From TrEMBL:
One Pfam assignment: TPR_8
Organism the protein comes from: Triatoma infestans
Any one cellular-component term (Gene Ontology): cytoplasm
Alphabetical keyword list: TPR repeat
Protein name: Tetratricopeptide repeat protein 17
Domain of life: Eukaryota
Lineage: Eukaryota, Metazoa, Ecdysozoa, Arthropoda, Hexapoda
SUPFAM superfamilies: TPR-like (SSF48452)
TPR repeat ranges per the UniProt record: 102-135
Record bears the keyword Nucleus: no
Length: 164
């Protein structure tokens, strides 16, 4: 197993209580949806290993159409654990599986930003925005990366002109 650790993710919004998730899994232990919710619960509590175990089960039981949901969850976990190269590989698989869902493109853009590959990041934000044109978070993130890239290029040009 991966050795992933991080603090509690209190910003995760889970639509069911822990007791409801537990009850649902006891009633139907093949529910991919409830295993995915359980993984969010364990991420919220900061227990990466239990979150991973639930994601694996969710992925195993998910119908083909919904496989992208636990894969996105795992991609976010990998990114937060600073396994960005692995997150990029996984998120490319998500996009191959569900190319018309904007969230995969958006999360891959975030990973490319973390890797410092701003051109690919902007391209992924563009893909997400082509699928969901009024997505404010994606618009703001793309704008921030474009601005950052311009500042970086300007500073590099300035440094080169000073050295010459």
């Amino acid at each position: 197993p991966w050795n992933l650790t991080w603090p509690n993710e209190s910003d995760i919004n889970i639509p069911l209580s822990p007791n409801q998730i537990y009850y649902s899994l006891n009633k139907n232990n093949t529910s991919w949806y409830h295993y995915n919710l359980a993984s969010l619960y364990w991420r919220q509590k900061g227990d990466a290993q239990k979150a991973l175990d639930c994601i694996k089960r969710s992925l195993h039981f998910a119908p083909r159409y919904f496989k992208d949901v636990p894969m996105l969850n795992l991609g976010v976990m990998l990114q937060r654990a600073q396994c960005t190269a692995e997150a990029a590989i996984l998120l490319h698989s998500v996009i191959d599986h569900a190319p018309h869902k904007p969230k995969g493109h958006f999360l891959l853009a975030n990973v490319y930003t973390a890797l410092g590959d701003y051109n690919r990041s902007i391209a992924c934000y563009d893909n997400a925005l082509s699928l969901k044109p009024n997505w404010g978070v994606a618009k703001r993130a793309r704008h921030a990366i474009v601005c950052h890239n311009k500042v970086k290029n300007t500073l590099n040009n300035l440094q080169n002109s000073i050295q010459n």
